[in-house]
Amino acid sequence: MKMGQAETFDHTADLGLRLRATDLADLFQTAAEALFDVMIANREDVRQVESERVSLASDTPESLLIDWLNELIYLVEAEHRIFGGFEVRVAEDGRSLEATIRGEPLDSSRHVLDHEVKAATYHGARLDRVGPGYLAELILDI
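Above: the chain's sequence. Below: its structure in token form.
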């Protein structure tokens, strides 16, 4: 059951994301949704007609989260596709993930672009277990 929450906060010329979720899979899904909510004003209008599998591994859960968002940013830039649906499975140790992402080719007549996100950065990144869930903060270079 999806329970994650995301909010943005200002950070100089960048934009911060604060994410709360019940588990790591929920956190990574919430992070992807928040990223595309920043990039596209009408993410709910993205048709989920194409799907793609993404597999990633990293040294820490924090770096995996940043790598995950940067992989999504790369797919937007390189393939001119946007995504609105995310099914994420994260390994118990938080160091690898398998995801199915769904979306469509970017269509400027239907998709309202909001912010160009260049990268998710390591500056100030954190991912902590808080009570029964997780809290993460990271900075997007816009």
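The chain has a mean pLDDT of 93.
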